[in-house]
Amino acid sequence: MVRDNAHGHQTDHVNADAPWVDQGAGEPDRLQRLWAPYRKAYLTEKSADPFVAAPQKSDEESLIVARGNQVYALLNLFPYNAGHLLVVPYRKVANVEDLDIEESQEFMSFIQMAIRVLKKVSNPHAINVGMNLGGASGGSVRDHLHAHIVPRWQGDANFLTIIDGTKVLPELLADTRTILAQGWKEISAEFADEKGANCH
């Protein structure tokens, strides 16, 4: 190890009394680092389409709440609020206008069902529904259409979110998936019973 001695000359030996100078890469900045190794899989799989890969795994592993013929609903892996759902077509399309009739109908039907389930299970004060369309829209997966359904409560953007850019989530994603999947089944069964009653 090379250090400057008292005369300003570099030496090849270590003086135990000399102050340690960090020679690491980079410059100090204002940021503190929070280590989140679970994000590694998300970052390393960025080249692959996570919405194509998700339905090929189990519902529990991919956090899928419900599957349809054309689309499916799953939890956002990095939610804004607990219960943040995504509705995604199986077929990889970038634009709403690229969906065919059947996909469009089930896409909207799943968005409506997601809202019903969140209202029943989570009792939110409001719900945001939105899509990021196009490369400049800010979405992280820009070439596979998906809709965000986010439950909202008064004060859910508190000082931690606004000042520190941090979100506190009160429940594990796996637990949220189980609750929402059960709610989805119950509401689907209610709709099926209503249709059956109307047919008689």
Overall residue-averaged pLDDT value: 81
Structural class: alpha+beta
User: Which descriptor suits the 3D outline?
Assistant: globular
β-strand amount = 5-15%
Number of alpha- plus pi-helical segments: 6
Strand order of the largest sheet: 3-4-5-7-6
Low-pLDDT parts are: 1-7
Following the backbone from N to C, one meets helices and strands in this order, namely EEHHHEEEHEEHH
End-to-end separation in angstroms reads 88 Å
How many E strands? 7
Helix content: 25-40%
| Biggest pleated sheet | 5 strands, antiparallel
Give Rg in angstroms.
25 Å
Summarize the structure.
With 200 residues, this protein is α+β, with helices and mostly antiparallel strands.
Structural features:
five-stranded antiparallel sheet; 14% strand; alpha+beta; 7 strands; 200 residues; two-stranded antiparallel ribbon; disordered N terminus
What does this structure look like?
The protein has 200 residues and is an alpha+beta fold. The protein is 34% helix and 14% strand. It has helices at residues 39-44, 50-53, 59-62, 101-122, 159-164, 173-199; strands at 3-4, 10-11, 64-67, 71-75, 85-89, 126-130, 147-152. The strands form two sheets. Strands 3-4-5-7-6 form a five-stranded antiparallel beta sheet. It has a two-stranded antiparallel sheet with strand order 1-2. It is globular and about 90 Å long. The relative contact order is 0.13. The model is unreliable at 1-7 (pLDDT under 50).
Write the layout of secondary structure elements.
Layout: E1 3-4, E2 10-11, H1 39-44, H2 50-53, H3 59-62, E3 64-67, E4 71-75, E5 85-89, H4 101-122, E6 126-130, E7 147-152, H5 159-164, H6 173-199
Antiparallel strand pairs: 1-2, 3-4, 4-5, 5-7, 6-7
Helix pairs in contact: 4-6
